[in-house]
Amino acid sequence: MSAPTIPAPTAPSPARPGRPAGAAPGRRRTSLGRRLAPYGYLAPVAVLMLVLMILPVAVVIRYSFFDNVIISPTSVLVGLRNYVQILTDPLFRTATRNTAVFTGVSVLAHLVLGLGFAMLLNSPLLGRRTKTVFRTIFVMPWLLTVAIIAILWRLLLDPNGVVNFGLQSVGLIDGPVAWFSELNLALPAVTVMNIWAGYPFFMVSLLAGLQGISADLYEAAAVDGASWWRRFFHVTLPSLRPIIISMALLDVIWTSQQFPLIWMTTGGGPLERTEMLSTYTYKLAFSEYQFAQASASAVIMLLVALVLAVFYVRHQRARD
To answer: Are 159 and 177 a contacting pair, CB within 8 Å?
Structure first.
């Protein structure tokens, strides 16, 4: 009787190159789907940014190097001629000067008022209910839209408005003043209006920073005999410096591009006394139909904003 034969074990088939042994096609597809899932979630936002931001900016940059754009079927390449015309335009220099004054005064006043009100709301001398009332009053301008703010201040500064009535009552002025029509008062008037509308943003941010400062620092300074001013300059300001720099850079970018508040009150007048870069660019495009020159002006504003944005990002990275 012969012994039963045992079949020899079959050797496993070699794995295909590029696929680990035992990996199934379904599992590979699942792994690929997991890797692509985040890009699928980002795709709608990427498409919106491409259509609403990147493409319009690219079109405006292209327009700035041509002439007879939009209104003519044939455009002519002129290179940097539009930029030269804009930079040598006296009205552009006037708008740049007005924008610099308007932005500088507004940002400085936003910082001073915001820090002052934030310290008031952070003071232990005020009760909780009093702080709640003041916080509601101080933050009120931030809750209003630009259109409402413009209408409100036009009514307040009207020759027959509340401001003129109050100043006449105390004897500071002899007659009604047209604040938005006077050559020497129009720019200060819109600047005050912008200051009132923007200081709550500084106040809220600085209040959060003040509440994050440890009380031990103030106690240690008080033990060393430091006065209130020394504690403010050597404890409060150094602790708030990163927030102040970040807020100031953002406010410069936003304020330098302020358009609706100016347009709905003075429109850049009287006699270009409140002409800003934003209103200057708008008038070039939609009043004079100089779309190529308006595109060049818009690109110049974009470059200035990009420089400020670079400083802001570098500061944020250094802060982190």
So the answer is: yes
Question: In the CATH scheme, what is the code of domain 85-319?
Answer: 1.10.3720.10
Q: How far is it, in rounded angstroms, from Cα 87 to Cα 78?
A: 16
In the chain, where are the structural domains located?
A: 37-77, 85-319
Outline where 181-290 has alpha helix (H). 186-211, 215-223, 228-231, 237-256, 260-263, 277-286
- pLDDT tens across the length of the chain (320 residues): 445 555 555 555 554 555 555 555 666 677 877 888 888 888 888 899 888 889 999 999 999 999 988 877 788 899 899 999 999 999 999 999 999 999 999 999 999 999 999 999 988 888 888 888 888 888 888 889 999 999 999 999 999 999 999 999 998 888 899 999 999 999 999 999 999 999 999 999 999 999 988 888 888 988 888 888 999 998 999 999 989 998 999 999 999 999 999 999 999 989 999 999 999 999 999 999 999 999 999 999 999 999 988 888 887 777 66
